[in-house]
Design goal:
Blueprint: H1 2-9, H2 16-45, H3 53-102, H4 105-111, H5 113-137, H6 140-156, H7 161-204, H8 206-211, H9 215-266, H10 293-335, E1 355-362, E2 373-380, E3 385-389, H11 396-401, E4 411-416, E5 419-420, H12 426-432, E6 433-436, E7 445-446, H13 447-451, H14 460-469, H15 473-478, E8 486-487, H16 496-508, E9 514-518, H17 526-539, E10 544-548, H18 552-555, E11 560-565, E12 568-573, H19 575-581, H20 583-594
Parallel strand pairs: 3-10, 3-11, 6-9, 9-10
Antiparallel strand pairs: 1-2, 1-4, 4-5, 7-8, 11-12
Helix pairs in contact: 1-10, 2-3, 2-6, 2-10, 3-5, 5-10, 6-10, 7-9, 7-10, 9-10, 14-16, 19-20
Bound molecules: adenosine-5'-diphosphate and magnesium ion.
Magnesium ion is lined by residues 396-397, 438, 518.
Length: 598
């Protein structure tokens, strides 16, 4: 736990000075607050008819000055605490973000995207709050406690023992209540995470929810979760709401006890005694000393300060413990090692577009029993057109993800341009291998800004050329804004097929040596699909093209077609060879032609 805390605290960085100044101001505030009752006492002591206003003036001024100092320290302390805590949170969020950017697909699989979001938002906020609280109170409260206790003994003598006796009683009340509440709060936070995740899923999947007319169902699910959460919150708050009255009661009890003994001391005649001995003489068990009225008010003030600081200390301990869970979750992300890193002496240039799979097997998790792809041996020459076909879940996407090193192989090696992909500089490799993922993604902006993701320096001509190959130029040119046509979030204002074609164009702008289309023309009609293939062949003859498709017509003319089944290669060959020798291929072909093809 301590390690996690230190790890997270490293993000304070340039805001350290504020984090150090804050407690200093809080010490100032505490010191003045402790001295003030003492000055007051002395002021009351000289309130006598024989003293003139002149005699009182220094006290007036001292009290006003102290009040100003105390307020200033309090304000500045609060302000610096806010600087420190929000700066800390900013850095922490930034560090988390940077870390997540370095994550490989495997790392992201490990955490899930939604959990990463919760960690970067809710957990950081929890940590920020407890940090602000800590730097303000952690020094101040114990200091107040010690100061006030000393002063209580100075002005009240042995009477101060009453407060000392009250400390454990109040401490115990608080700790017991806090423990109860904390258990519930912990559960609440866990549920809160679940709720967050469900909201994120629902909002991003809103279109699916709507198209399946599942709003009612999702709404019910959400309100159940939300109701559960509020019930737990109420339970916790009920306990927390007990704290203040209980505290007040105990403070008042202490107050009354103190007053009683103080009063008996002030009126010396009723010196407290505990009975009489056999001869009728009073027996004094304890020498209480004597007390002036002015001292009594100071004593009571110190008493309250002692009890208040005890409350503060208990509260901050509770807060801290509550934020430990958040700190742990944050440091878990910071501790995660990116599974894919640049090698020491990376190869910066990819020679050509050849790809070799050398006995490659891969599984997504070490502990998984089943390999997603198994024992692959493939030899692709630069410039070839490769088709991959297979049922869903047969490992097609997995296979191509290994080429751009989105994942590392579990066994065997993948060579691109004659070099193991693990030897390449990641950027150099991924610039040469363009993948149009099955789950493609457009960013909000314009067509041009999206295209320039592929190549920052691309000119308008180059963009139009890429769009032309992807058979998207006519659609774009026909619009009024042309390349400046707005792309809404997730490309919502384009149809599925248009989005796919935009993504192909974006990939082409990288000017890659290898282009991988993972089912990227599934929403494009057959005619356009054919035109894209023709343009790719004629305009970019040297580029290796690896095409995953459901339709045989999309890969019919390929130099080699790989039939995947259950993560293994079931057959490799041309269309003609496979029709003769491969049963799966023949079946797929027949089913697609009998239905009249598509
Ligand atoms: P295809 O693209 O042929 O439909 P995939 O390569 O996506 O198939 O998936 C192959 C197998 O790997 C499937 O059984 C799938 O459930 C599993 N798989 C895919 N992606 C992941 C992932 N990120 N984590 C764990 N398992 C995965
Ligand atoms: Mg797939």
């Amino acid at each position: 736990m301590l390690k996690s805390i230190f790890k997270v605290l490293k993000s304070v960085r340039e805001f350290k000075k504020y984090a150090i100044i804050t407690p200093l101001f809080m010490i100032g505030e505490a010191a003045v607050e402790c001295a003030l009752p003492l000055v007051m006492t002395n002021f009351v002591k000289i309130l006598k008819p024989e003293n003139s206003i002149q005699d009182l003036l220094p006290y007036f001024l001292a009290i006003i000055a102290m009040a100003i100092v105390s307020i200033t320290c309090g304000i500045l302390g609060g302000r610096f605490a806010a600087y420190a805590a929000s700066g800390f949170a900013k850095n922490l969020r930034h560090d988390l973000y940077k870390k997540v950017e370095s994550f490989s697909f495997e790392n992201i699989d490990h955490f899930h995207a939604s959990s990463l979001v919760t960690r970067m938002t809710t957990d950081v906020t929890n940590t920020q709050n407890s940090f602000a609280m800590t730097i303000r109170i952690v020094v101040r409260a114990p200091l107040m406690l010690v100061f006030s206790a000393i002063m209580a003994f100075v002005v009240g003598g042995n009477l101060a023992w009453i407060f000392v006796a009250a400390i454990p009683v109040i401490g115990i009340i608080f700790v017991v209540l806090a423990r109860f509440a904390m258990g519930i709060f912990r559960r609440v936070f866990k549920k809160y995470d679940a709720l967050n995740e469900s909201v994120q899923e629902n909002v991003s999947g809103m279109r699916v929810v709507k198209s399946y007319v599942r709003e009612g169902y999702e709404d019910n699910k959400f309100s159940t979760a939300s109701n559960n959460l509020s019930k737990e919150f109420i339970k916790a708050e009920k306990i927390v709401s007990l704290m203040t009255p209980l505290m007040n009661t105990s403070i008042h009890v202490v107050y009354i006890i103190t007053m009683f003994f103080a009063a008996t001391l002030i009126f010396k005649e009723t010196q407290p005694y505990w009975g009489t001995d056999r001869d009728g003489n009073p027996v004094v068990l304890f020498n209480w000393g004597s007390l002036a009225i002015s001292d009594m008010s100071a004593l009571l003030t110190y008493g309250i300060q002692i009890l208040m600081s005890i409350m503060m200390i208990s509260m901050i301990v509770t807060m801290l413990v509550m934020s430990f869970e958040s700190i742990r979750r944050i440091s878990e992300v910071l501790d995660e090692e990116p599974t894919i890193k640049n090698p020491e002496n990376p190869v910066m240039e990819v020679n050509d577009g050849s790809v070799v799979f050398d006995n490659v097997s891969f599984k997504y998790k070490k502990e998984a029993e089943r390999y997603a792809v198994n024992n692959l041996n493939i030899n692709i020459k630069s410039g070839e057109f490769i088709g991959i076909i297979g049922s869903t879940g047969s490992g097609k996407s997995t296979l191509v993800n290994l080429i751009s090193r989105l994942y590392d192989t579990t066994e065997g090696r993948v060579l691109v341009g004659g070099n193991d992909v693990r030897n390449y500089d990641l950027k150099a490799l991924r610039d040469s291998v363009a993948v149009v993922l099955q789950k493609n993604f457009l960013f909000s902006g314009t067509v041009a800004s999206n295209m320039r993701w592929g190549n920052k320096e691309a000119t308008d001509e180059e963009i139009v050329k890429a769009l032309r190959v992807a058979q998207m130029s006519e659609t774009i040119e026909a619009t009024q804004e042309r390349l400046n046509k707005v792309v809404e979030q997730g490309g919502a204002n384009f149809s599925g097929g248009q989005k796919q074609r935009l993504c192909i164009a974006r990939a082409l702008l990288k000017n890659p040596k290898i282009l991988i289309l993972d089912d990227s023309t599934s929403a494009v009609d057959t005619k356009t699909d054919r035109l894209i293939r023709k343009a790719l062949k004629n305009d970019l003859p040297d580029m290796t093209k690896i095409v995953i498709a459901q339709r045989i017509s999309s890969i019919e003319e390929a130099d080699q077609i790989i039939v995947l089944d259950n993560g293994e290669i079931n057959g490799i060959g041309t269309h003609k060879q496979l029709l003769e020798s491969n049963e799966i291929y023949r079946e797929v072909y027949q089913s697609q032609t009998q239905k009249g093809g598509n």
